[in-house]
User: Which sequence fits this backbone?
């Protein structure tokens, strides 16, 4: 088991190097460079050149990369152009809020998607099944940002049940109840697609499992259907669902940009959106790198978890 | 996806003609499924209708989509002359939706076609040549998979500058890895078959084997995945415009319209809702079509 974990961790290193290269190079394809942005439109050529030298932008590309990546590895992502504050602190500060939103959505997605998939599979071809399949199809085709607007329109503007923006009330109680109250609409919006995907995969995976021989054996023993499903089929059926959670984590992190923009949720997504608007490249770079690294780590974690629950994986490598 | 499975009890070489005919058989299978399933037909009809309305927008649209008229700002749906109402600048929503469809459909479909072609090329090279080539390509794909799609697209567009072409390029780059991975796995299956060995022993060179024997096997999974991907990309493209990184005002595009409509959500719900419904309907139709095609080609998966 330990060998498997170590091997997976080592395999992640080249991916992380690649990720840092992509982020670095993306910011290098910009017409002009950070020095020009920093110097402003009125700067003379000499001033720009001076800033360029002070930032090390006159050095060869690989020197710049090595410098940038070794600083990043020590937690230094440079300074935001717009606010002249350390990027690392800024993105980590906002990332907590994104994490709250993403975790709440993940919980909701599992709480809605998995039971829906199970009910669908155990009542195959019934009205319940059709309804759930239809709902999953709708969830998959729904533009997140539009769903958010519809939620605001209905629950916030019309019924005045939930707030339409922010994380806490400006004046008011604050604390957990206030947070949950503000969290409801954004989390519901963000969980739509993952819930739909989870429902679909749970359904088809459980249907497969229910046709397996060991399930027939369990039934032949005279077990009740509920026991057959819960004790025998479900365990195996949920394995593919687990892998999916890793992929969906990426969706939650990426989709949070849209949802945070719609609901003015003060997370990393909204920060990135603002940073792109202000062409604050160090901030865009830092935020992108952070999200990508977190995503890689989540997938590593899911892989290891998978090996824990399914011993076959461990022996294959 | 549906890699052709060997038929039980039949030597692999025998079904080579069947596999070769895969590309042609695709049309027949898809048509049979389509005739049987009214929902599928409705989805196809919806897509064709939206494409038709977008193509014919210059003829059909009742008003100029960018002409503002301050006298009739925020007219509700059902107003005479403005069936779907007007936006905050007094522009006709119906006309904007029709004209906007042209751009939304192009930005949603063209990158899928480009990435399907690009991804197929990369996947075939990786799967067919194997070895160091495959290992290198797989590593690069792994890196691209390490980014949430929308984030990578955002980073690319923000670096290149917001425009519709840069948005399309970003979407293409982001979509290539999944196509490449899909094609690579079908190629690996096809490459191991007896008919490839037979072709090689008859003296066929690599390019002939790839074009004649390998590529046909990748066609149907790519078409199925591409259809489903189009459903996603329509949303994805609109999302980029919604964030202000795609189409620039005053051009009509569904995502941009949604973004503009946001500001008047409280007073005129229709301005943001109508383009949202269009995105949803088109995406839904492509998803239904993709699911239907998959079931037609791989009956084992249909449930």
Assistant:
């Amino acid at each position: 088991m330990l060998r498997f974990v170590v091997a997976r961790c080592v395999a992640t290193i080249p991916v992380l190097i690649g990720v840092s290269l992509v982020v670095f190079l993306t910011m290098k394809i910009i017409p002009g460079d950070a020095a020009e942005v920093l110097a402003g439109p009125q700067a003379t050529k000499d001033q720009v050149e001076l800033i360029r030298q002070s930032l090390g932008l006159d050095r060869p590309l690989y020197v710049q990369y090595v410098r940038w990546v070794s600083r990043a590895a020590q937690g230094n992502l440079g300074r935001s152009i717009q606010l002249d504050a350390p990027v690392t602190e800024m993105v980590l500060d906002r990332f907590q809020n994104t994490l709250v939103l993403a975790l709440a959505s993940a919980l909701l997605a599992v709480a809605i998607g998995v039971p829906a998939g199970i009910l669908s599979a155990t009542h195959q071809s019934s009205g319940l099944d059709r309804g759930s399949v239809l709902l999953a199809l709708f969830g998959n085709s729904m533009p997140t940002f539009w769903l958010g607007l519809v939620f605001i329109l209905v629950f916030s503007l019309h019924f005045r049940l939930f707030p339409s923006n922010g994380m806490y009330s400006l004046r008011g109680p604050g604390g957990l109840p206030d947070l949950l109250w503000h969290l409801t609409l954004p989390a519901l919006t963000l969980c739509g697609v993952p819930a739909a995907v989870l429902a679909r995969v749970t359904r088809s995976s459980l249907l497969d499992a229910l046709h397996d021989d060991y399930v027939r054996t369990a039934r032949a023993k005279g077990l009740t259907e509920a026991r057959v499903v819960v004790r025998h089929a479900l365990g195996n059926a949920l394995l593919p669902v687990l892998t999916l959670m890793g992929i969906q984590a990426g969706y939650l992190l990426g989709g949070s940009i849209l949802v945070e923009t719609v609901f003015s949720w003060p997370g990393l997504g909204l920060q990135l959106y603002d940073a792109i608007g202000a062409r604050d490249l160090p901030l865009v770079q830092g935020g992108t790198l952070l999200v990508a690294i977190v995503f890689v780590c989540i997938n590593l974690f899911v892989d290891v978890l998978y090996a824990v629950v399914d011993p076959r994986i461990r022996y294959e490598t | 996806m549906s890699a052709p499975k060997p038929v039980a009890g039949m030597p692999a070489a025998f079904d080579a003609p069947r596999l070769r005919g895969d590309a042609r058989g695709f049309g027949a299978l898809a048509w049979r499924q389509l005739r049987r399933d009214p929902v599928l037909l409705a989805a196809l009809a919806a897509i064709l209708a939206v494409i038709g309305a977008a193509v014919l927008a210059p003829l059909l649209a009742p008003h100029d989509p960018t002409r503002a008229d301050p006298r009739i700002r925020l007219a509700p749906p059902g107003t005479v002359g403005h069936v779907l109402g007007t936006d905050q600048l007094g522009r006709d929503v119906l006309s904007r939706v029709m004209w906007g469809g042209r751009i939304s459909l192009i930005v949603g479909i063209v990158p899928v076609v480009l990435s399907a072609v690009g991804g197929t090329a990369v996947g075939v090279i990786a799967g067919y040549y194997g070895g160091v080539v495959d290992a290198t390509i797989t590593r690069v794909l792994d890196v691209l998979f390490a980014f949430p799609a929308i984030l990578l697209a955002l980073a690319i567009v923000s670096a290149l500058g917001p425009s519709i072409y840069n948005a399309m390029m970003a979407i293409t780059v982001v979509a290539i890895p999944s196509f490449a991975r899909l094609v690579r796995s079908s190629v690996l299956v096809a490459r191991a078959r007896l008919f490839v060995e037979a072709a090689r022993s008859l003296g066929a060179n690599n390019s002939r084997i790839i074009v004649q024997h390998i590529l046909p096997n990748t066609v149907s999974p790519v078409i199925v995945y591409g259809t489903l991907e189009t459903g996603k990309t329509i949303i994805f493209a609109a999302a980029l415009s919604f964030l202000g990184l795609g189409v620039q005002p005053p051009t009509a595009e569904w995502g941009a319209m949604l973004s503009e409509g946001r500001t008047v959500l409280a007073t005129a719900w229709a301005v943001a809702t109508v383009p949202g419904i269009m995105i949803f309907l088109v995406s839904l139709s492509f998803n239904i079509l993709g699911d239907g095609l998959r079931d037609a080609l791989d009956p084992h998966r249909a449930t």
